[in-house]
Amino acid sequence: MSENQTVKLTKRDKETVFWRYTVITNSLFNYASMEAPSLVYALSPALRKIYKDDDDYKASLKNQYKYFNTTPIMAESLVGASLAMEEKDGIKALEPVQSLKTSLMGPFAGIGDSVFNVMMNTIIGSITGSLALSGNLIAPPLIGFVWAMIMLFAVKRPLFWGGYNSGVAIVEKFGDQLSRLTNAASVLGVTVVGSLVPTVIKIQTGLVMKTGKVSTNVQTDMLDKIMPSLLPVLATYIIYKLLDSKKWTPTKCIFLVIVFALVCSYFGILTVPK
């Protein structure tokens, strides 16, 4: 790969990224990388301007295509920050960009889902639903349109440009110390992802070992005392190792988990966690 020369994007280039992501959000979706295809679609024209070398361009696209999943509204800021960091630092920004996305997409999803997908949508839905039940046919679509415009110009655009300005500030402020920021963001990202294993993945064995009159529950008397959530950790590790192989796709892994769970449940090896 060649050292990237600094390329200054025009406002139109940045606007193009914003509109491409806003329009296509979640339309390009798969279970392997979630929202990454939408991200690549949005950034690709700007990245082509930043990277004149084909190998650098491909490396950037491959980096952006890694797993990415957060509330689309909050994602606008991460799209802007990613663009700014690559525009400023070129190929050297790939690792910091990925670390930034990994560490923030979880917390941003929590904020976005709570504020926009639950609270605000419930409020707007209640208002429009009440008006529709009262026989008002004009107000509900009008309120929906006004709300969409508010979200577009008062929320999404400020988040995108705020993220872009923050991305520039990160590079300018930390400069040569960017590797330290990357390490810190990586630790935060690993912590966030690691915390999902015991909280989201629930696996429990129903095996009981009997020695004479003494019965030992494998789950509560052995595994939980050695390492709580040991089975979820092992399951996660096995799935990750399978996904690392080209022979295994996410779809195959899903079917493997279903079949394995059914068979083990039938023979009492696995039980439903309480």
Automatic annotation (TrEMBL):
PANTHER family: N-ACETYLGALACTOSAMINE PERMEASE II COMPONENT-RELATED, PHOSPHOTRANSFERASE SYSTEM SUGAR-SPECIFIC EIID COMPONENT. GO terms for cellular component: plasma membrane. One of its GO terms (biological process) is phosphoenolpyruvate-dependent sugar phosphotransferase system. It holds the Pfam family EIID-AGA. It comes from the Bacteria. Keywords: Membrane, Transmembrane, Transmembrane helix. This is PTS system, IID component. The chain crosses the membrane at residues 137-155, 181-201, 255-272.
